[in-house]
């Protein structure tokens, strides 16, 4: 029943696999969403295995920060040179899988280019802007990121300090960071790689404040890769995880950008400075939920990886002789070990199911919205917020229990656990800080 | 009341400090164990600040594994060249503090030399051996570690596979690792730094097995620093934390060592191979408890550091405007933030008190043991096991809550949290894996 049984494997592991009462192939197909998808994943896996450029010269844990970023940049070029191997229209399916195989959990210099920069161009530009930028961005002539959060401002978008003041005399915006807390802070790929960014700034025109708007801004010279005049920027350094991605900062000192830098699909500024407000739209709301359903699936996968490592280790590791002379027993046979590891395996499956459910609900709500029906919108928001919080925290805790169940070996980077934890636990903070999300759920439940 | 109030500080922080209702100097004295100790700590702090050699050329998080180990080796030489600045007889007081200031949480190539190698020589050698080795070890002519755990064996000492078989013809022991799982695995400083080790191996003489015993073994040539003939060894690589310490592995292929390599304070082997058993002793028992009381204090300190960072951040960080126009509020004023951070601060103090209590009990029991009174011994063991488990897990959880309370910034290495967590969480595994320790407590409570 198990396609993983191979001769030459550790005998304890083979014995455990022989005891399995389910078909591992059917289970794999269920996890990936069908046999066809599973087959395609295997094709991608085999392709990635065949490309020598995807190998790391030494394990990345042995590299310095600089070496790690360079290695990541080298690999991401190979990865993007080979995108014809995957179905480009299925970014969150084949694309994410392909990226995970080539770049691992350390992510890379172009993570934000694909996840935020390109989608923002596609969603926020007018037709002229799309013509100007999309081709360059897809061909990597322009590598971009999304610069919204500031050193002093995360959740409260209305208090962003960076300003973009329109000057009708030159038909330019003047981009400025009035304080140190106005520094754009955290954008992935901003540290060393991006030469462009979508910058979110407070728009001022004709002396009036019009709130935060997105602008496309060139940051570095395309030839020398040095910051342009008036732009101060750099790397914010190593993190708990995801160190192949060069998160960075940037400050603007009266930087002039053309009027057409404002992404004008919805809001517009006319040459004379007249502001044209966007039509009311609630459709952006759904995208966040979609990202959360992807994220819950990703968290489930990380917990599943940790539980797999811990379970296999527990089958192979023998410690403690219960019956004298009978030899040491597999630690998998201790109830305490089972109670520590197996619930994590069960959670991984439960979270995978939850991710499917929320995605189905998202599709239903999106369909309803096209008919002006907003009935399920609030419920969708609150369900995805609550699930994201519970799943990410349980995942973080579960990975740590799996790690601890491997004793000292779990502390070694070679076990994979430190990397899995460092990557997954970020999910407790991004896409909405967990406590803030849970407060939103509580508020909704009270109103309901 | 607060000695930390300084002009030029962030005004929010100063305002919070002014609200304090207790004397921070008295609190500091209580934490360190008296005003005299506090004063001495400050002298040591000022000395460490004055030594340029103790600085890192770049933050260690930016270094490669190799650079990190080299930097650590360089600093530990400066540290040990300056030990006259501290009271050498107070290793677990001034010594640990001095080491923490110079080497940080990353530890160093000689950590095990001081914590395990030297104390083992002092405790397990006979008088001749002490004369031969102690001077060399103190002068660093010999740098050693303690090699007990094996790749396949941690908690179950009786199943260690490395053998030391006595050959009366040459008056030598033959040290051998029969399998790959017999590889000594994890000893700190073994990877690159140590040229000697205390190796724990199963003693065989006259065809009889006498159980695990400690041997002092030269591993590397003192001039070339290359492994000696028959010895295979190296670095086991990066870990979740403590990466300035080069944990390593070693395998022995029929390595011959002199009879006097057996540390003979208690057990002996005569030249003809006659084994002399050690007199029964339970005094070694207490040492483990002593180490645990040190460890509980250390854990409390790590949690206190995390809570301090989170509390200060929460005072300075403003986010969310509750009353329109009133400006953003300090996040310290949100009840959810208080409920997240303050319990960690309270726990740090509770754990410090618990560490003092267990140390007092240890001193009482040690005194009683000298009169043959073992009445409190089992209770001491179970209290220290239980406390160690609860404190280390609550500390790990508490550090993570503090980190998450700082939002995205907590994910940056610059916050200190990833390092504090990586260092402290090791305590859930070392000095007795927490679940195993809790099972021992449960067994005792049932019997009681």
Automatic annotation (TrEMBL), chains A, B:
It is found in: Peroxisome. The keyword Hydrolase does not apply. GO terms for cellular component: peroxisome. GO terms for biological process: fatty acid beta-oxidation using acyl-CoA oxidase; lipid homeostasis. Its cofactor is FAD. One of its GO terms (molecular function) is fatty acid binding. It comes from the Eukaryota. Residues 285-445 form the Acyl-CoA oxidase C-alpha1 domain. The keyword Nucleotide-binding does not apply. InterPro entries: ACOX_C_alpha1, Acyl-CoA_ox_N, Acyl-CoA_Oxase/DH_mid-dom, Acyl-CoA_Oxase/DH_mid-dom_sf, Acyl-CoA_oxidase, AcylCo_DH-like_C, AcylCoA_DH/ox_N_sf, AcylCoA_DH/oxidase_NM_dom_sf. It holds the Pfam family Acyl-CoA_ox_N. Keywords: FAD, Fatty acid metabolism, Flavoprotein, Lipid metabolism, Oxidoreductase, Peroxisome. Residues 146-255 form the Acyl-CoA oxidase/dehydrogenase middle domain. Belongs to the acyl-CoA oxidase family. This is Acyl-coenzyme A oxidase. It comes from Caenorhabditis japonica.
